[in-house]
Amino acid sequence: MSRSEQAEFVVVANRLPVDRVVAPDGEESWRTSPGGLVAALEPMMRRVDGAWVGWAGQPDLELAPFTADGIRLIPIALSAEEIAEYYEGFSNDTIWPLYHDVIAPPQYHREWWDAYVRVNRRFAEAAAAACAKDGTIWVHDYQLQLAPAMIRELRPDVTIGYFHHIPFPAHGLYAQLPWRDQVLHGLLGADVIGFQRAQDATNFLAAVRRRLRHEVKASTVTKADGHSPLVKAFPISIDTAPYRELAQRPDIRARAAEIRAELGNPKRILLGVDRLDYTKGIRHRVKAYGELLEQGRISVEDVTFVQVASPSRERVDAYVHLRDEIELAVARINGDHDTTGHTAIRYLHQGFPREEMVALYLAADVMLVTALRDGMNLVAKEYVATRFDNRGALVLSEFTGAADELRQAVRVNPHDIEGLKEAIMTAIEMPASEQGRRMRSLRKRVLEHDVDAWSTSFLDALADARAKKARA
Ligand code: G6P
């Protein structure tokens, strides 16, 4: 890459903000990538003059850098084998389950690790080539934990940030990882290492102390080479503006009313919105809802449950099994309780555009976020940002990062099915005055701590690191 094409600020993430999709007739198009990471980073990237290094979501795509929506994109090619070993394998069948408290058993395969090292190096080299002298590189998430140290080797002049979007597990679990020391060394290549919750930062520092015997003082690690990375929580958030604006639009509000009518105008609509992932506790919430029907505490005429489960990681075994389990459970409950006019669970294994999501949030009286473990959970924040009418109740798992901030939600331990049933009933029966009181406080938190506040605080920490580096 020529000097003039280098950017002052480079984001590196497994995915580009857009995925290339090829229709059955061979026509190609681009669509927004799934997940919270892209949603959180896109608004900041539109403001800065930067480049984004990532994968376009398809095998063997050798694409030249291009600009989309004002963001310079640098695609990384992955072969079908690398997708199987680095992405589906090590990232999503080793690290993902291990870091989410082994809800599913992590698989440890040496070939997967080899591919992870190889692909991390490819991302690191592309980022190092794309970054201007004394620039900044911000690496994202668990797919790229080795990249910070690799970039540091290639480009000691650059200031490096790393943000971890998912949980970092307690040492007793982390210690299972056969490559636990290599991963810590990889992360410690960054100048600022950010986590979602204070507990994640504490877990990481405990691993650094116990495995590498580095000294840790006031959130700063001191390494033998004098490099001293800062480790801190920076809870991520959303860009609230589009949610607030869409929620006020007459056509979207009309669509919300139409959704209620389509569902037979039940008294209460419960909503779940997740990637179809075993960390999200979808089975637990389906079970709790099914038992409430079974016990006659609610009826399908009065309370409908809409579950949007967007397809995710469909070639990883644990996800294939999860889909079978959920669809069996949903079909059983619907078979037992549906009437010709009303359905118990309206299950949608699809992704929807943001307009439709906002209409769903507006139509929903109760939002169910029952993750067994979740780094943050931005769906909870999207629901709150949408409810300008100060109505609706949020049921929120205490095992999400969001629970640290959204104190006025109805908190729940999703493993406790009786407790979950009580929480759902509390939300269903919550008087409008209490909904309003809680929602106002939830909204205050989300609107004040939006994604701008998040990126600004991380970038400020990086600027401090750069100043420290210049002095040294
Ligand atoms: C989570 C992860 C992201 C990931 C997203 C979607 O939000 O933190 O890194 O991109 O899920 O998952 P996928 O495997 O489709 O990229």
TrEMBL record:
It comes from the Bacteria. InterPro entries: Glyco_trans_20 (IPR001830). Pfam families: Glyco_transf_20. One of its GO terms (biological process) is trehalose biosynthetic process. SUPFAM superfamilies: UDP-Glycosyltransferase/glycogen phosphorylase. GO terms for molecular function: alpha,alpha-trehalose-phosphate synthase (UDP-forming) activity. Belongs to the glycosyltransferase 20 family. PANTHER family: BCDNA.GH08860, TREHALOSE-6-PHOSPHATE SYNTHASE. This is Trehalose-6-phosphate synthase. It comes from Microbacterium bovistercoris.
